[in-house]
């Protein structure tokens, strides 16, 4: 069974089991109303993946997604509650109501768009393979015999499994930190990650020789809501357009990524930005 099939089956199974197919109904799509009544918005973020979402020495959530989430809460006039979670828990946490919005580096892919609703993109990165400079890797085939670490269920897991098949030397870890630690400690020869992994690797192992080897794809991130929630989706799309236009999103990108905003795609095949 391929990872792609497993992800889709698990996600669709969760939707069916919980009776979530009816999220398009007006009665079940009152996310914004419930948030305002509660006075707090619960937003899913990563807890150990700088610069997107991590926790500083004082116990505060920080990062690109965190800053955007704070702006969402300010715009809504409510407090924000951050809910860190593992990669594999992101969609279940949203669909089971543990979070109101999911922003934990949520790559926008057609399989995911079948079970959650994405907004237009607010951030982007590249999905890559990293390894020591000593290893000559020009294509993923050059790494076929190597032990490759990936966060279970992440975009890089899907990309590498699709290219190599579900081979036993793909080692799956529960989160990004465990995956990077496996590379630093020599448990694996290479890891699937994204373009911001190098920032964390340099902190964990100063002077390392890890480098980008292969680029699998460009990933765009949107805010994920429950399917059919048109009110929340429309509000969030207008909000993203607003912070792009007034420069606040550009400032967040410069702060955390050291670069300006990319040219966001007007559309992504198989991933609608609005409720259909």
From TrEMBL:
Signal peptide, first to last residue: 1-29
Keywords: Signal
Domain Solute-binding protein family 3/N-terminal: 40-260
Top-rank taxon, per record: Bacteria
Subcellular location: Cell envelope
Transmembrane segments: none
Family: Belongs to the bacterial solute-binding protein 3 family.
Name under which the protein is recorded: Transporter substrate-binding domain-containing protein
Source organism of this protein record: Paracoccus broussonetiae
């Amino acid at each position: 069974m391929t990872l792609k099939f497993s992800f889709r089956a698990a996600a669709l199974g969760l939707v069916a089991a919980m009776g979530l197919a009816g999220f398009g109904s007006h009665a079940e799509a009152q996310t914004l109303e419930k948030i305002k009544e509660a006075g707090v918005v619960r937003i899913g973020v990563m807890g150990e993946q700088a610069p997107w979402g991590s926790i500083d020495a004082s116990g505060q959530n920080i990062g690109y997604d965190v800053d955007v989430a704070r702006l969402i809460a300010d715009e809504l006039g409510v407090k924000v509650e951050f809910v860190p979670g593992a990669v594999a828990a992101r969609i279940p946490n949203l669909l089971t109501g543990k979070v109101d919005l999911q922003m934990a580096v949520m790559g926008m892919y057609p399989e995911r768009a079948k079970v959650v609703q994405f907004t237009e993109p607010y951030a982007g990165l590249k999905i890559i393979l990293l390894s020591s400079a000593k290893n000559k890797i020009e294509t993923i085939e050059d790494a076929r015999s190597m032990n490759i670490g990936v966060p279970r269920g992440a975009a890089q897991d899907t990309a590498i499994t699709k290219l190599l098949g579900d081979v036993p030397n793909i080692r799956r870890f529960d989160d990004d930190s465990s995956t990077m630690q496996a590379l630093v400690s020599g448990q694996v020869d290479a890891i699937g990650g994204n373009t911001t992994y190098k920032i964390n690797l340099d902190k964990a192992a100063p002077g390392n020789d890890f480098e980008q080897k292969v680029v699998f794809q460009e990933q765009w991130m949107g805010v994920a809501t429950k399917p059919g929630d048109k009110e929340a989706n429309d509000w969030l799309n207008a909000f993203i357009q607003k912070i792009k236009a007034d420069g606040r999103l550009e400032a967040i990108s410069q702060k955390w990524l050291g670069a300006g905003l990319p040219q966001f795609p007007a559309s992504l095949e198989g991933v609608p930005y609005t409720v259909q």
